[in-house]
Design a protein that fits this description.
Growth Hormone, Chain: A, 443 residues, mainly alpha, globular
């Protein structure tokens, strides 16, 4: 029997990794909190600010893919410490930045550390929990992003008003460095290596097969749609509330937290429900895939509907729901990918999923939003068109993802391709051959 200390250790790691994600998104989002005074002080246009917000994602492909493969070989403890150190170091140059190029350079370097972060965190969590018990801890960790905004938004807004926007960057750099010290002292590595029950002892297959698989493509498409929403919200929600809807800086600091609070409630509740469905025997195709697609299409519809309303409580409610529901994708899609991927390749595939989705979205979504705002007849009209486009994009991607994601079919295909060298498939039916056929019926 495990001791109390041993049974609590996985949840302590979840706590530390949640703090990691809180800092990750606070470090990322501080640019949006500082948007209005920063643009004023540095004489930046909306499109130039959008370019600076997109710059963080320019090195995401290199950093994300490298980080995913790195954790296949090295302990996640040291990789996470290295990533957070990079974040801390990139906040301090903003204390003296005075040109667009300096801001862009700092954000590019931040992207180098942020790129692999989410995938490495998930890989670390999966080392502590079995497949059918991952939804809740994964939901908690992934909502570190929302906790980061909820905690940071009013605090950073206060310090921006009281001390200036540069102080916010310095504060977050210091807090991130403090996390690194605590993690080096208390962090450790999990020992769970068993694959999902459906995958069994699935052997490695080629990365070409993994990347071109319909389930991976469907999840990545859903992740891309959600990442578009997250990157736009991080960069543009504060200026939208102030310039587009007329709220004060202090009000914006509090209102910015609403979508992230909705995300916390919806994702934790949705993650728990998905896990209960799995434990009750509902196939992953429905308990995970259909569920995440439903949340994505409903969130997109809410965001689109929000643009037709006047400022007020109902508009803010739809804004919160439209952002919160789709973020469940970042809990369930990685779980589906981990479910169907050979354990030896899991870290790399989670890294590729996160990298492709975030890079494709972050590299252009904030910049295009800036162009749309610039060309609107009024700031309010520009923002409305941008968010309407986002909502429609998410709804379309949700339908396509639902068509593509078929976990049991993917497992059967991988098992058929992962034949040991020097052997030929038997023509007689075996238990191993029958099992995928039965599992595929769950699709």
């Amino acid at each position: 029997m495990p001791t109390t200390r041993e049974s609590l250790k996985p949840w302590f790691i979840v706590f530390m990794l949640t703090l990691f994600m809180i800092l990750a998104f606070a470090d990322r989002a501080v640019l949006g909190f500082a948007a209005v005074p920063l643009m004023r002080d540095l004489n930046l246009t909306p499109s130039q600010f959008g370019l600076a917000a997109s710059a963080m994602y320019w090195v995401y492909p290199v950093a994300g893919i490298a980080g995913g493969f790195l954790v296949n070989r090295w302990p996640t403890k040291w990789v996470l410490a290295g990533l957070a150190t990079v974040w801390a170091a990139t906040q301090f140059p903003m204390l003296w930045a005075s040109t667009l190029n300096e801001v862009v350079a700092a954000r590019v370097l931040l992207g180098l550390g942020e790129g692999p972060a989410f995938a490495v965190v998930l890989h670390a969590v999966f080392k502590w929990f079995e497949d059918d018990r991952r939804a809740v801890p994964t939901s908690i960790v992934s909502e570190g992003a929302a906790f980061g905004i909820v905690l940071a938004a009013p605090v950073v807004a206060y310090f921006i008003v009281a001390q200036g926007w540069r102080f916010g960057f310095g504060l977050l750099g210091t807090l991130t460095a403090a996390w690194v010290v605590l993690w080096l002292i208390f962090g450790s590595e999990g020992k769970v290596t068993r694959p999902s029950a459906e995958a069994g002892n699935l052997q490695p297959v080629s990365y070409r097969l993994l990347l071109l698989d319909r389930t991976f493509i469907g999840n990545t498409l859903a992740g891309f749609a959600v990442a578009c929403g997250i990157t736009i919200m991080l960069a543009w929600l504060p200026p939208y509330l102030t310039r587009g809807l007329g709220y004060s800086t202090t009000e914006t600091g509090w209102l910015t937290t609403l979508p992230w609070i909705a995300s916390i409630v919806l994702v934790l509740g949705g993650g728990y429900l998905s896990q209960r469905l799995l434990l009750a025997g509902v196939p992953s195709r429905h308990a995970r895939a259909s569920f995440l697609c439903l949340c994505l299409v409903a969130g997109g519809a809410a965001t689109a509907a929000m643009t037709f309303l006047s400022p007020g409580p109902l508009q803010l409610a739809l804004l919160a729901i439209g952002f919160g529901l789709p973020t469940l994708v970042w809990t369930l899609s990685p779980a589906v990918i981990a479910e169907v991927t050979p354990v030896a390749q899991r870290g790399a595939m989670l890294g590729l999923f996160s990298t492709i989705a975030n890079s494709a979205a972050g590299s252009f979504a904030p910049y295009l939003m800036g162009l749309v705002v610039e060309r609107g007849a009024t700031p309010s009209a520009g923002y409305a068109l941008g968010f309407l486009t986002l909502g429609l994009l998410q709804a379309v991607c949700a339908v396509l993802a639902w068509i593509l994601i078929r976990p049991a079919t993917t497992i059967a295909r991988f098992r058929a391709k992962a034949q040991p060298a020097g052997t030929r498939p038997s023509t007689a039916p075996t238990a191993m051959a029958i099992q995928p056929a039965r599992a595929a019926a769950g699709d």
